[in-house]
Amino acid sequence: MNNFAKLKDLVLSLEGDFDKFYDKHNAAAGTRVRKGMQELKTLAQQFRTEVQDMKNTAGDASAAAPKAGAAKKAAPAAKKAAPAAKKAAPAAKKK
Predict the structure, then answer these.
(1) Cα–Cα–Cα angle for 78, 82, 84, rounded to 5 degrees
(2) In the prediction, which pLDDT does 2 show?
(3) How crowded is residue 3: how many other Cβ atoms within 10 Å of its Cβ?
(4) Nearest to 22 by CA among 30, 31, 14
(5) Are 8 and 47 in contact, with CB atoms under 8 Å apart?
(6) Rounded-to-integer distance, Cα 59 and Cα 75, Å
(7) Once rounded to an integer, what is the mean pLDDT over residues 9-35?
(8) Helices marked H in the chain — which ranges?
(9) pTM for this model (two decimals)
(10) What is the pLDDT of residues 56-93, one digit of tens each?
(11) What are phi and psi of 78, to 5 degrees?
(12) Is residue 11 within 8 Å of residue 37, measured between CB atoms?
């Protein structure tokens, strides 16, 4: 089963519990909704990681063989953190 189908099935499976919680104020349905939403969050993070990995893998192959006539872009200069401001020591009091 592809990822999109898994996502749709999970959302559709929560529909009844959403109705019970919001319309009938069933607290147990609210617990199931929260559990389902946590599963949705976990599934979404897995999908994000998978997509990023696929994108990076595809990017590595295209980086090895750049397209003809494509202009090379210079890498942006690394940003340096601003140095912390040092406070001057208080002046010694004159007697």
Answers:
(1) 145
(2) 86
(3) 13
(4) 30
(5) no
(6) 16
(7) 96
(8) 3-24, 27-64
(9) 0.57
(10) 998 776 655 555 555 555 555 555 555 555 566 666 66
(11) -65, 135
(12) no
